[in-house]
Design goal:
303 residues, mainly alpha, MetI-like fold, 2 domains
């Protein structure tokens, strides 16, 4: 009987410590859940504040002029589909949309090819002055577009391409998209060299190694480049504005939406409808490629 009492007394501290550990784990889990809940609430509020202007613009595209200035409500009294018709037909947004599609798709194809080839050379090959080139590219990231518009305009004019869609395409795709070059360089740098060396031993040429082996492996970065260049070209305002001054029919959507603002009158409903039309393709492209966009950014950064 005495031994039984002694045994139970010896087990009591161990049971107490085990209970304290369980309670501490439970408190830690509850505190983690509370922190997670607070984080979700704060981020939700920030997200709603962040996207409110976008939601208001979409809502304004279905309102009348009087409703727009009556308050900040997001729910229109009735859907004014006539705003989209006027914007598409009467304001020539349909023509501007086609011009923007041609310019954007062409510039995306050119930029994907040029940035991939430059990134492949910088990421896979060593040569004299490589570090200097990468440093200069990094420094040029901070150069504003406004500083380069004059030489770009002079070059396009010298080539007699001003006032043409091809001139806009070259101006938008030849502006050294440095971020995309560095993304490709970082991604290619992390690919094992054994793949390239085995292909060379099998008799593959340089173009074949690049197009059949390296380029297919870089699909996440290609998707990232497509998204970045698509957004940049689709929303570009300065270059199309300067290069289409003599030919207004070649305007892109960004310039076309700006033309709604007149000196004496501005149609805010039509402008909101045109802006909604302009924004829809960007959202669709990003939703389809967002997974590859995140993979491309993460893969290039890890390297």
């Amino acid at each position: 009987m005495t031994d039984l009492v002694r045994g139970s007394s010896r087990d009591y501290p161990a049971q107490t410590r085990e209970g304290e550990q369980r309670s501490s784990v439970a408190r830690w889990r509850r505190s983690g859940q509370v922190r997670r809940l607070v984080t979700y609430v704060v981020l939700t509020v920030v997200c709603l504040i962040w996207i409110y202007p976008l939601l208001w613009m979409i809502s304004a595209s279905f309102k009348t002029e009087a409703e727009i200035f009556s308050g900040l409500s997001l729910i229109p009294q009735s859907l004014q589909w006539e705003n989209f018709r006027r914007a598409w037909v009467d304001a020539n947004i349909g023509d501007y949309f086609i011009n923007t599609v041609i310019v954007t798709i062409s510039s995306v194809l050119i930029v994907v090819f040029t940035t991939a080839t430059m990134g492949y050379v910088l990421g896979r090959h060593d040569f004299i002055g490589k570090r200097l080139i990468i440093g200069l590219l990094g420094a040029l990231v901070f150069l504003p577009q406004g500083y380069t518009i004059i030489p770009v305009f002079d070059l396009i004019t010298a080539l007699r391409l001003d006032g043409s869609l091809f001139g806009i395409i070259l101006a938008q795709s030849g502006s050294a998209p440095i971020i995309m070059i560095l993304l490709f360089a970082g991604y290619f740098r992390g690919i094992p060299r054994e793949l390239e060396e085995s292909a060379v031993l099998d008799g593959a040429s340089f173009p074949r190694v690049f197009f059949q082996i390296m380029l297919p492996l870089s699909k996440p970065v290609i998707a990232t480049t497509i998204i970045l260049q698509f957004i940049a070209s689709w929303n570009d305002f300065l270059v199309p504005l300067v290069l289409t001054l003599s030919r207004p029919e070649l305007r892109t959507l960004a310039v076309g939406v700006y033309s709604f603002q007149g000196e004496n009158f501005t149609s805010w409903t039509d402008m909101a409808a045109a802006s909604t039309i302009s924004l829809a393709p960007v959202i669709i492209v990003f939703l389809f490629l967002q997974r590859y966009f995140i993979e491309g950014m993460a893969g290039a950064v890890k390297q």
